[in-house]
Amino acid sequence: MSGTSGSVGLSTTVELKGHLIDSLTLSKVIDVVQQLGGDYHLNDIRVGSLKKDISSINMTLMAPNQQVMAQLMEAITPYGAVPGDQDEPEILTCEQDGQLPKAAYSVKLPQRVHHRGEWVPVQNGGAWALILEQGQARMKPVSELRQGDVLISGTHGLQW
Amino acid sequence: MSSLSSAKTWTSPVGVTPFSKSGKPTILMCPPTYFTVAYAINPWMEEAPPCDEALAKRQWENLYKAITEQGGADVVLLEPVDGLPDLVFTANAAFVYNNTAVIAHYKHAERRAEEPVCAEWFEKQGFNVVRMPDHIFFEGAGDALTWQDRVFAGYKTRTDIASHSLLTAATDLPVLSMELINPRYYHIDVCLCPLADGHLIYSPDAFDEYGRAVIEANVPKDKLIPVSAEEAARFACNAVNVNDTVIFNQGSGQLTDDLKARGFNVVQVDLSEFLKSGGSSKCLTLRVG
Fold first, then answer.
1. B133 interfacial to chain A (CB closer than 8 Å)
2. Shortest CA distance from B177: residue in chain A
């Protein structure tokens, strides 16, 4: 079963387990995905035969871009969705200071806030990239990226 | 006035526990010796004026009397611990069914020191103690309430939905996972309460359309008692039901009338000092037998 909304650019697999049917959790997840501009395909559904049985679902999530995919994952994680694959993310290297490679994962934060009639700049707003550094992952402003920084690409191997 | 049909058909919401031998409902409470509003982990605490601890002790004693004298229940006590002000809210200690106690694993670090205290108490009473994995939060009977043969369980604000599968594995009870959408109703026991004979009171505003649909699909219309937003904000849904007596904070006239019309005895107790902490009568109790 698939939804019909939105254009498809990225896809990832997620799994849901729990009391999904009687609690209307699956309906809620599908509605949230579509409301946020994503799409889905149900790859595998196992519905428990007794009320106490746990159901499990494997679904492919589709989104037109990374930002929507991140929103989808953030929105459905509280309903128990976990990444369906255990792949590690693809890695890119920053080739020029302050420049984000096109396929790198990034998050855009607001740059100004309208406050008391004026647009106040957000001090740490703008684009942030996800980097790996000495075995740790952290967000770094794109303007502070340095050549050689190790960047995450895509949405595989990420958990919200 | 109709009378409750439950007098003979009442089944314990906690099944058969180590406390069932007495034949009377048994409730766990913890004296408010060290109770105060010491930190803010819910909207009620954030807005709370200073707590009158002496008044809180008198209010707790009035609740104790209502439960034992008017409700006819036995009360067993958990020893209070200095530095654990919220231990008084025993509803959160665990979810109890038959001889199993699924111990809370709190979302907020402020309450985690309560976990070993409660686990030790349940072990001493002869319960099979089940603990949640470290990465899954579950706040006991604050977020899991047995109605008939199933459990209405809240999630998102405090409890993780992943705990619901583990609750079923531990107790063999089916769970209805209910998203809590209003931060003021951070546990399901402040917005929904199963009562004797299949009745259920709830605040429709605390749930989204999916949650309301789940409630309506499970509970027959004539057993469902919606509570107004005004009365829910006075913790009317945070009620203790013992036999045919229902005990809750004072000031909920409509719910009182609705329950009396169904044959319940209603007792209102002033619990103003505990409301400052985001809890009321149900939060101060845990049915253990």
1. no
2. A23
Q: How far apart are CA B92 and CA B106, in angstroms?
A: 9
Query: CB contact, 8 Å: B192 with chain A?
Result: no
B48: domain range? 6-287
Any A CB within 8 A of B216 CB = no
**CA-CA distance, B212 to B178, in Å (whole number)?**
9
Whole-number Å distance between alpha carbons of B241 and B253: 17
Q: ipTM of the assembly?
A: 0.84
| B6 — pLDDT class (breaks 50, 70, 90) | very low
Domains of chain A, start order:
10-83 (3.30.70.2690), 90-153 (2.40.420.10)
In sequence order, which residues have a C-beta less than 8 Å from that of residue B226 and are 6 or more positions away?
A: B201, B202, B203, B204
What residues in A contact B172, CB-CB < 8 Å?
A: 52
A46 DSSP β-pair partners? A56
pLDDT recorded at residue B9: 42
Question: B172 and A52 in contact by Cβ < 8 A?
Answer: yes
CA atoms within 13 A on the CB side of A11: 12
β-strand partners of A114: A119
